[in-house]
Amino acid sequence: MNLEMGLYQQQTIKLVMTQELRQAISLLQYSTQELSEYLEEQALENPLIDMEEPELFHKEEPKYEMPVMWHDEPSNEIHNQEEQEGFSPFDRIKDDRERVTDYLAQQIRLFPCDEKEKRVLEHIVGNVGDDGYITGTYEEMAVLFDITEEDYESCIRKIQSLEPAGIGARSLQECLLLQLERQSPRQPFIEVIVAEYLEELASRKWKELAKKLDVSVEDIQHAYDQVQCLDPYPGVHFGNDHPGHILPDVYVEKDSDQFIVRLNDDGLPKIRMNRQYRHLLERNEDGEATEYAKQKYKQLVWLLKSIDQRQQTIRSITEAIVEFQYGFFEKGPSAMKPLTLKDVAEAAGVHESTVSRTTNQKYVQTPHGLFELKYFFSAGMNTNSGEQTSTFVVKSIIKELVDNEDKKKPLSDQKIVDHLKKEHGISISRRAIAKYRGELQIPSSSKRKRYN
């Protein structure tokens, strides 16, 4: 083996990630709100940048709000769009409502108790999480305060007597019971079920439970419905922001017999060069001030180029999506076709990773509502006629079938399989149906069954 040291030439190819390239990639994946915040930061660092706040909302444009969904994943489609004549930009200001701990602290100040107990109560309240549940144990409190376990439980009960009902619980079961105890009139039967059979109730073992308690299945179903009306997280209504207003990054509008893609440049602040620094660039002089101005001018130019590139990339990718999904824009979600990142990347002349970055957190206003751009991508499957259909269409059919089924005799996965094959020519396995049900958060037929 030759271990001789020396100088050798070697030709290699390396991709150097410059700061400007990193910036361009970052701007591409920013949402409109994130990009606006980034530009504000740049304006603070670069004195050459003058920013004019965007006219975020126009009176002829509707307001869009994200739906509040406690149990589901955020939906790609924005439903229930509120159309108003307009609203103030101040609606976008962060909501500074008091947190649940502040609300509870105000109430315990009214308790007739000595200073020691008040300090204990304040400490316990400080350990109430944003969901309304108490964290911590008696053992942890005993290290800080000279109290007995009985004193600790007494303080817990006082906190649980506060508003809202269910606050200060240490488990879901306790939270539900606290709310049931405040109802008038009381419902002892439901309280017993929650206290002793909550797991069976949640897992819908209703027949077994009805037999055990010697009641009808309808009685158990009624108890289940009542428990569903309770609030499992009584603290979440405090200190949270109102649902944010989503601004479309791009509009797709019908013009005669074709669809036009229009960028929403109004959602971004206008950037101009500061006039006070312009003279430093115009003067052909040496000096630190002039050199500093030139450096900041280069940053400004590159920033403007990056923003322009971002906007043009969004446009070209949206145009490619419109071309592939023309049926959707014409007829709605039922006409969705299979579409991959590769298809759009080839049509737009960019890399797949660019398509992925561009479609994330970017929204398009269509004739059928507001959608995230990545909503239009889905896998495909062959029909009996040899054509391809989108898995999204299959999910839409499944959801429609379940919505319209007889709840006393809900459709089994096999019946859904049979329907898809007979009515739509789509051959699909029961396992695939179960998978799509899970993605749609639709329970199995046994858990969808109703008894009255």
Count of helix runs: 19
Give the helix/strand class. alpha+beta
Secondary-structure element order, N to C: HHEEHHHHHHHHEEEHHHHHEEEEHHHH
Count the beta strands: 9
Stretches where pLDDT is under 50 for at least 5 consecutive residues are 57-96
Helical residues, percent:
40-55%
Q: What does the largest sheet look like? A: 5 strands, mixed
Radius of gyration: 30 Å
Report the mean per-residue pLDDT as an integer. Answer: 81
Give the strand content: 5-15%
- The outline comes out as flat
Organism: Alteribacillus iranensis
Domain RNA polymerase sigma factor 54 DNA-binding: 291-450
GO biological process, one term: DNA-templated transcription initiation
Family: Belongs to the sigma-54 factor family.
Can you give a write-up of this model?
The chain is an alpha+beta fold and 452 residues long. The protein has 3 domains: 13-67 and 246-377, no CATH class; 100-228, RNA polymerase sigma-54 factor, core-binding domain (Arc Repressor Mutant, subunit A); 380-448, Arc Repressor Mutant, subunit A (Orthogonal Bundle), CATH 1.10.10. It is 48% helix and 8% strand. The protein has 19 helices and 9 strands. The protein has helices at residues 19-29, 32-45, 100-108, 115-126, 138-144, 149-160, 172-181, 188-202, 206-213, 217-228, 275-282, 288-324, 326-331, 341-348, 352-359, 391-403, 413-424, 430-439, 445-448; strands at 49-52, 77-78, 250-255, 258-263, 270-273, 363-366, 369-372, 380-382, 388-390. Strands 2-7-6-3-4 form a 5-stranded mixed sheet, covered by helices on one side. Strands 1-5 form a two-stranded antiparallel sheet. A two-stranded antiparallel sheet has the order 8-9. Strand 6 (363-366) and strand 7 form a beta hairpin. Helix 3 packs antiparallel against helix 4 and helix 9 (206-213) packs across helix 10 (217-228). The chain is flat, with a radius of gyration of 30 Å. The N and C termini lie far apart (86 Å). The relative contact order is 0.11. Mean pLDDT is 81; it is low at 57-96.
